[in-house]
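ESCALATION

Customer reports they have been waiting on this structure for their group meeting. Please prioritize. Original submission:
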Amino acid sequence: MKQIELTAESREKMGKGAARSLRRQGFTPAIFYGKGIPPQPLTLDSLELKRKLNKAGSENAIFALTIKDDARTVNKMAILKEVQTNPLSREIIHTDLYEVAMDKEIAVWVSLHVKGRAKGVELGGILQTVTREIELECLPADIPEFIEVDVTSLDIGESIHIKDLKLPENLNVLDDADITLVTVVPPVSEEAVVAAEEETAAEPELISARGKEAETKESK
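Update from on-call: job pushed to the front of the queue and completed.
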C-alpha cells in the first residue's frame, strides 16, 4: 500500500461554529486518534486533502502525517477511518484519522473488483454481486488496494465464496469463509415475466371487486 504525505495543524477551537469558520477559510476539521491516545483535533488544508485523496486512489491508503503546533512537529502514520461529505456539494467537511503502527496488524475493509466475463453470462445467465467488500487483518504496508475476483470460468448456477479466493499468506480474512461473493443466476424466462405482469395486473381488479362488494353491502 502506498504512503501519502499529509500535513496537519493542531487546533483548540471546537464546535460547529468553529468548524464552519475553518471551512470558510479553506480548511477541513479533522480528528486524529488511536489505541490508548486521546483524540486530537486537527486542521487540514482542504485543497491539499482533496489532492492527496485523489492521489491515494484507495480508501485504505497509509498517510505519513506531519502534525504541527506552536511548540513542536510530530510525525505519525495513519489511515482514514471516516470521511464526511456535504450531501449537496460533495465537499469534504470532516475526516477521522486513525493512528497505525507499521509493525502491528490492523483490521480493514477492502473492496472487491470483479475481473472477466463469466461463462454463464455468455450463455444468457445474469452475474450478481452479493458482497462488495471483505474484512482483512494484516500489516498496514500489506493492505491491498482491492481484491480481484476472477469470474471467467463461472457457469450458470455457480458461485464464488471467500474460501475460493487465492490470497497471499500475509492477508488474514476475518469474515466467514462460506460467504458468497458473486454468483451467476439463470436468465428470467419470458413466460415468467409475462406471468408476473399478469399477476400484478390482476391485483387491482381484486381490490376493485372487494370494494364493489363492500359498496353493495353498505347500500342494503
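Sent to customer with the following note: The helical segments are 16-24, 46-56, 119-122, 190-219.
Escalation resolved.
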